[in-house]
Design a protein that fits this description.
Blueprint (H helix, E strand, L loop, with lengths): L10 H52 L4 H5 L4 E6 L11 H13 L8 E7 L5 E8 L5 E6 L6 H41 L15 H34 L1 H10 L6 H26 L8 E4 H9 L6 E5 L5 E4 L1 H19 L1 E9 L2 E8 L6 H5 L9 H6 L7 H11 L3 E6 L5 E6 L7
Parallel strand pairs: 6-8
Antiparallel strand pairs: 1-4, 2-3, 3-4, 5-7, 8-9, 9-11, 10-11
Helix pairs in contact: 1-3, 1-4, 4-5, 5-7, 6-7, 7-12, 8-9, 9-12
Length: 435
């Protein structure tokens, strides 16, 4: 089971996470700020209206006019009673703050007994209830229906802030992804260093990323040059060794007895074949190729013609033309078919086009490989135990050479055991860039 972690996997992902976190903090802070302002505004507005109501109500009462008839409206009930109304809830912080603002608005009320509290209603609303003691000892009582709360306005402001935050975060994410594009291209290029032709990355973006891209291109050129120089030096050495081997081959004709002559001659031939395989493997490291029109079935039949006496056959359509690198594909197929014939006695090359892509499959009927040996099959000079026991020849460079040739030009090779026995080598051709 994979362990869950909140740690971002990349620089851009981490930066995006920071932008999102900042956006969330800004959203929460903005909503809290709007709520505080909204509450303050509502308190002051409610206090102003109550102060005006109390002053006018007091004057109306002095004139001997019925307050309830003059002051009552659809949102406010007013009446004069002998005593203050019964309080159902204690005076809360909100009501106390409004009472303080009332006294600030109307200093004439500061010496009067003023009581305020709020009551919840059955319909979910909330009323503000209060009473002011009049000069004649009676009380001017009032009830403000559905006393507004600050949250609706704060929520509207919060929704606006949320929309603005999301737009800013989206723009920030887009900008970060654009800035991270050179890094992603640099990563892909770094993964392919030494496995294909040099592919310089575009030097673009901010100054730091442009300098990094330029330094990477210089490093890639140096590494590629070192690899090619090493390969050419080894190739030249293997070529020079063929001259003394040719002399040994000639000298072996004069060796006695005949059994010793045969031993010397066979070993010289084996060394020559080994040098030839080594040279091909080294040359694959820096070989050049240009994509061209290739008829895959025709190419397969041409490859299979090298084994006229072996049980080799092709299965698939009669023609299929692609823009591909013919030379590397042909050399890879030769080595894979040779491996199949050498260890399985026969080979079948099948052209498949399904969900896994268009590919060639080289099938053999050999013993297959253990999981341990299959994992090492791409290592140079590696030969499985079955290959050594059967003395089938080869030096363990055929499959590594094929894999290097295909990968260098964008192709791919995958070798697996067949359920019915033997190996299946899947070759995805090295296509032109346009394909």
């Amino acid at each position: 089971m994979r362990k869950f972690s909140l740690r971002p996997r990349g620089l851009v992902a981490g930066s995006i996470l920071v932008v999102v976190a900042v956006g969330l903090v800004e959203l929460v802070a903005s909503v809290a700020f709007y709520q505080a302002i909204d509450r303050q505004t509502l308190r002051e507005d409610q206090a102003r209206r109550i102060a005006e109501f109390l002053v006018v109500g007091d004057r109306v009462n002095r004139l001997g006019i019925e307050v309830s008839q003059v002051m009552t409206s659809h949102y406010l009930e007013a009446t004069v009673t002998a005593g203050p109304p019964a309080r159902t809830d204690p005076q809360g912080d909100e009501a106390e703050a409004i009472a303080d603002y009332v006294r600030q608005w109307e200093p004439s009320l500061s010496g009067r007994s003023l009581r305020l509290w709020s009551e919840d209603q059955a319909d979910g609303g909330r009323d503000l209830v209060g009473a002011l003691e009049l000069e004649d000892g009676r009380w001017l009582s009032f009830r403000s229906h559905h006393f507004p709360r600050p949250w609706p306005i704060a929520l509207r402001a919060g929704a606006t802030t949320l929309a603005f935050t999301l737009v800013c975060v989206a723009l920030g994410v887009f900008a970060l992804r654009q800035l991270g594009a050179p890094l992603r291209r640099l990563t892909r290029a770094a993964q392919n260093v030494g496995e294909g032709p040099p592919s310089p990355v575009a030097v673009e973006g901010p100054a730091d990323l442009a300098a990094l891209g330029s330094a990477f291109n210089d490093m890639q050129r140096r590494i590629t040059g070192l690899i090619e120089d090493q390969a050419r030096a080894m190739e030249a050495l293997s070529h020079d060794l063929r001259t003394p081997l040719s002399r040994l081959k000639l000298a072996s004709d004069f060796v006695e007895p005949p059994e010793m002559r045969t031993l010397v001659s066979d070993n010289v031939d084996e060394l020559g074949d080994m040098l030839k395989s080594l040279s091909a493997w080294l040359r694959a490291q820096h070989e050049a190729s240009t994509a061209e029109e290739v008829d895959l079935p025709g190419l397969v039949r041409q490859v299979l013609a090298r084994w006229p006496d072996a049980a080799v056959r092709y299965e698939g359509p009669k023609t299929l033309i692609l823009q591909a690198h013919r030379g590397p594909l042909e050399q890879a197929l030769i080595r894979l078919v040779d491996n199949a014939v050498r260890f399985g006695g026969r080979a079948t090359v099948r052209l498949v086009d399904d969900a896994e892509g268009r590919r060639l499959e080289v099938l053999d009927e050999g013993p297959g490989l253990s999981a341990e040996n299959l994992a090492r099959i791409y290592e140079p000079f590696f030969r499985g135990d079955a290959a050594r026991a059967r003395d089938t020849g080869g030096f363990g460079l055929g499959i590594p050479t094929a894999e290097r040739l295909l990968k260098r030009f964008g192709g791919r090779l995958a070798i697996v055991n067949r359920p019915e026995g033997g190996l299946r080598a899947c070759v995805w051709p090295p296509l032109a860039t346009a394909e």
